[in-house]
Design a protein that fits this description.
Radius of gyration: 27 Å
Strand content: under 5%
Number of strands: 0
Number of helices: 9
Structural class: mainly alpha
Shape: rod-shaped
Largest sheet: none
Helix content: over 70%
Order of helices and strands: HHHHHHHHH
Length: 206
Amino acid sequence: MLIDLIQRGGLLMYPIVICSALTVAITIERYIRLAKASTPVDSLLERLKPLVKGGKYAEAAKTCKAERGVVARILAAGLSKGDSPREREKTMAARAAADMHHLGAFVEGLSTIATVSTMLGLLGTVTGMIRAFMQIEKLGGQVNAGVLAGGIWEALLTTAAGLSVAIPAFLCYRWISGMLDRTAEQINISAARVIDWMPDEEKAGA
């Protein structure tokens, strides 16, 4: 049934099917990667607080390295490098930018797929209608309502298919983007707290 509908919808149904497969692949891959990148932030910060306040940066960095996730990696980078809070903050900012860029790879592709699949659907409908009316012209306009309706519904298949791909693609884009935003917020809050916990004498000398 599905294969038959794809074939009756015309050639533009095939790129729409490819867009559907890409949506599923990107969404699953990014979700798994973001899930693996998550860090138990609250418990980590509780253990880091006394260490950072005591200036025990090597031990604090070791604690971060023992944890999984992007927040732990970024904090470990900042605690391992630099002689002042300002330098450590710069290190964390640079590492955060690189990691977030890596985590956000291909996500914009979901937004592009949502747009392109809609346009492909509309294009398929337009070309399908053109073919239908060309057939009517060949028959000298002597066609019944059934023939005309059959041509039209086949042309509209691509619009339905395009929207069926575009809507989930856009929803997946918003979902994954929300996960990225929450991760970025965790990074900013965690880094700010660690910098704030550093001894006042170090801040004064920064």
